[in-house]
């Protein structure tokens, strides 16, 4: 079978709104050039450019028209995908496997500050189906409430997830929020949407990142250590179904099963070395443990409590700090792939993952609310496969 490898990446550290220093095209150009320079490529070598962005978040119609040329798309095939970074990566992989491209750049940036309450309110159909004024934070709170009823978890477990991830972020120089918080401080912070406090819901981070995908033959020429994509899967949830239905998150479960099948994984808990989960709210990570098959239903909290998913556990989750520490609304998926690459390449000096060789990365467009047909994607990355 043909293989597709990731041969390089470019990334800028992520910041808060007050520290933004570049426009989107400037930030995109910087990280795309950084990725190309690492492996001795120029814009003329690119066949296709794929961008992850959303107009509602960028505050401009067809925002990709501004970012595309900055990523090297001038005179090339180019497209924009709004679902997220792994969806963009899947398009890149499809182009390479079909023979229509040999080298593909996937890029994304977050430089525009927006009011996510307003944006998510309009995307969740606040007139005909959803309650008036409904936004992403409220949807997260309602789902977290459903988890409390159905998952054998507590509010303390939600806070413990956040505590773990903030602690991990202190070792990630690219993370936006790098301050540790105790579970008690997290639970006592401002209540946003019960049972979730302000430190349990991801904010908006600003930065940019880019990836370079290549065919197997080209990847081996460009680098001695490509990271191979061995499995991908996608899924979409029902549009505004019942809370019981939505809380099951069947889309992520489907995406994971498809990715595992392609990668030849039958026991993910034992066969994965590292996991990156896009968790827009703390409780989501626990549900994802079940959806990803890392534990049986009802055992997610125990997986957390016994330290399995901690930095020194047998299956670390979100050593980057997760979405609570860094959440570029456009670039979150690309950011998580980069973090997994850094783990597999042993590039995080203060983090010891015991020579990890296989990682799972999850991505979702749930940044604008976890209802309304949100989609999920899973990618399996392998070192030396």
Write a compact overview of the structure shown.
The protein is of the alpha/beta class and 385 residues long. Helices cover 38% and strands 18% of the residues.
Provide an overview of this structure:
With 385 residues, the protein is α/β, with parallel strands linked by helices. It has a domain at 4-113 and 204-222: Peroxisomal Thiolase, Chain A, domain 1. It is built from 16 helices and eleven strands. The protein has helices at 24-38, 55-58, 64-70, 85-98, 116-123, 136-150, 155-169, 183-188, 216-222, 243-248, 250-263, 268-271, 282-291, 300-305, 322-325, 332-344, and strands spanning 4-11, 48-52, 77-81, 103-110, 191-193, 196-197, 207-215, 227-236, 274-276, 358-364, 375-383. A hairpin with a 2-residue loop joins strand 5 and strand 6 (196-197).
Please, what is the average pLDDT?
91
What percent of residues adopt helix (DSSP H or I)? 25-40%
Query: Which architecture of the domain at 4-113 and 204-222 would the CATH scheme give at its second level?
Result: 3-Layer(aba) Sandwich
The arrangement of helices and strands along the chain is: EHEHHEHEHHHHEEEHEHHHEHHHHEE
Q: Determine the strand fraction and express it as a percent band.
A: 15-25%
Provide the low-confidence segments as ranges: none
Keywords, separated by commas or semicolons:
nine-stranded mixed sheet; single chain; two-stranded antiparallel ribbon; 18% strand; Peroxisomal Thiolase, Chain A, domain 1
SSE topology:
Blueprint lengths: L3 E8 L12 H15 L9 E5 L2 H4 L5 H7 L6 E5 L3 H14 L4 E8 L5 H8 L12 H15 L4 H15 L13 H6 L2 E3 L2 E2 L9 E9 H7 L4 E10 L6 H6 L1 H14 L4 H4 L2 E3 L5 H10 L8 H6 L16 H4 L6 H13 L13 E7 L10 E9 L2
Parallel strand pairs: 2-3, 2-4, 9-10
Antiparallel strand pairs: 1-7, 1-8, 4-7, 5-6, 8-11, 10-11
